[in-house]
Amino acid sequence: MRLPIARINPNFTKAMALIKYALEKGINFFDVGTFYCHYHCEEAFGLATRGLSRKQLVVSGKNSSHQTQNVDWLTQLRNSLALFHRKYFDIYFIHYLKLEQWESHFLENGIIDEIRHAKDRGLFRHLGFSSHDKPENVRKLIDTRLFDAVILPFNLMQRTYEKTMEYAHSQGLGVIVMNPLAGGILAKSKLFDVDSEYLDTQDTPADLALNYVLSQPFVDSVLSGMESKAIIDENIRTVHKNRFRTLEINQLSQTISREKSNNYVACTSCNYCLPCTQGIDIPEVIRIYNEYSSVKGQSFFQRDYSILSVTADCCIQCRTCEDNCPQNIPIPEIMDKADQLLKG
Predict the structure, then answer these.
(1) Do 62 and 39 touch, CB atoms closer than 8 A?
(2) Rounded to 5 degrees, what are φ and ψ at 176?
(3) How much of the chain exceeds pLDDT 90, in percent?
(4) What CATH number does residue 189 fall under?
(5) 142 and 168 in contact (C-beta within 8 Å)?
(6) Paired sense of beta strands 89-94 and 124-130, if any
(7) How far out from the chain centre does Cα 151 lie?
(8) What is the domain count for the chain?
(9) CA nearest 209: which of 256, 156, 262?
(10) Terminal CA-CA length for the chain
(11) Are 286 and 255 contained in the same domain?
(12) Which residues, in sequence order, are bridge partners of residue 149?
């Protein structure tokens, strides 16, 4: 999702270079979605990894056909395989799955039969899903016994699915974490600036936040959006650090719970809320709002807000954005709070 690919006149050179650099560093699992990077992610990834041995790469894709009327499930699977230049996926995910969709679309419409048939034909080997549904609904999806892996959001600020992940792990599913740095917010946070004997003074906020997720016994893999070689290098350095012990995990959790701003909004900048009917850049408003709150109010955040082409006071409370938000954020209310706070 974070690859440097422009919407207009896209060029894959930088994106492919980053993918190849990550592969050289030993990264072998990538989160590739059909509509990521303005629908160019699969093509760029396929070109960057064409001919690469499966010993170096877990070939993984996502199906989002239940979110659109433009293509059916099997056609999207075949299209993705063609763009990947592969005959089959090692693991194939149903993207952003809700229990209601599973029951009304996949079961009642017979899509489950297409999925079984595709697996029997060898088009993919393992089935997974990603979700932002209620934890109890995700557990029901796990209990279908049809899935081998699950992708869920988890980080120091958002631990909604912690028990669900523990359950998935206990049932033998691979547990993969998205949003480990809360959309990048934790990488810049001042919330870690506290005295503690158990933290390495050389650790950056990104080190601490990422290592916190990696140290969880129920986590098998972590997805981190990396837009540059420098970020790849930083994340790999974190991977090679010693994992936190249970005591350190608990201390860090308590530190964040105590220190973090009550105004923090768990936005991951996924952009599902866009386009806004009034032209507000909702993720950017929330980013400025979170950073303003996290560093206890710096004037330059008010400046950043003031130069936005459309500020949050233009919100008409239509709630279209709220309906599309996977985090169930009350966006209109946040727009009102942000405008009052950031107007200065």
Answers:
(1) no
(2) -120, 130
(3) 68
(4) 3.20.20.100
(5) yes
(6) parallel
(7) 9
(8) 2
(9) 156
(10) 34
(11) no
(12) 128, 174
Single out the residue of 301, 295, 298 nearest to residue 261, CA to CA: 295
Residue count (the chain): 344
Is 89's pLDDT higher than 60? yes
Instruction: Note the helical H segments in the chain.
Output: 13-24, 36-39, 41-49, 73-84, 99-101, 111-120, 135-142, 162-170, 185-188, 205-214, 229-239, 246-259, 282-294, 299-306, 320-324, 331-342
Residue 268 one-letter amino acid = T
**Around Cβ 165, how many Cβ atoms within 10 Å?**
24
16-30 pLDDT per residue, tens: 999 999 999 999 999
Query: Helix (H, G, I), strand (E, B), or coil: what is residue 153?
Result: strand
Per-residue pLDDT, 204: 85
Residues 144 and 252 occupy one common structural domain: yes
Q: Which of 63-72, 73-82, 171-180 has the lowest mean pLDDT?
A: 63-72
Structure tokens at 260: 């973090």
What is the distance between the alpha carbons of residues 74 and 94, in angstroms, rounded to a whole number? Answer: 12
pLDDT of residue 193: 57
Query: Are the C-beta atoms of 265 and 283 separated by less than 8 Å?
Result: no
Question: Which DSSP string do the residues of 92-143 spell out, in sequence order?
Answer: EEESS--HHHIIIIIITTSHHHHHHHHHHTTSEEEEEEE--S-HHHHHHHHT
Task: Round to whole Å and give the CA distance between 296 and 189.
Answer: 11
- 239 and 310 share one domain: no
CB 178 within 8 A of CB 31: yes
Determine the structural domain holding residue 195 and report its residue range: 13-259
Residue 283: asked if its preceding bond is cis (omega within 30°), the reply is no
> Per the structure block, which two tokens stand in for 265?
């909004």
Element (H, E) at 89: strand 89-94
The letter for the amino acid at 36 is Y
Cα 33 to Cα 64: distance, rounded to the nearest angstrom:
8
Across the range 130-156, mean pLDDT stands at 95
Distance in angstroms (rounded) separating the CA atoms of residues 25 and 317: 46
Over its C-alpha atoms, the chain yields an Rg (Å, rounded) of 20
CB of 36 within 8 A of CB of 44? no
Is residue 214 in a domain?
Answer: yes
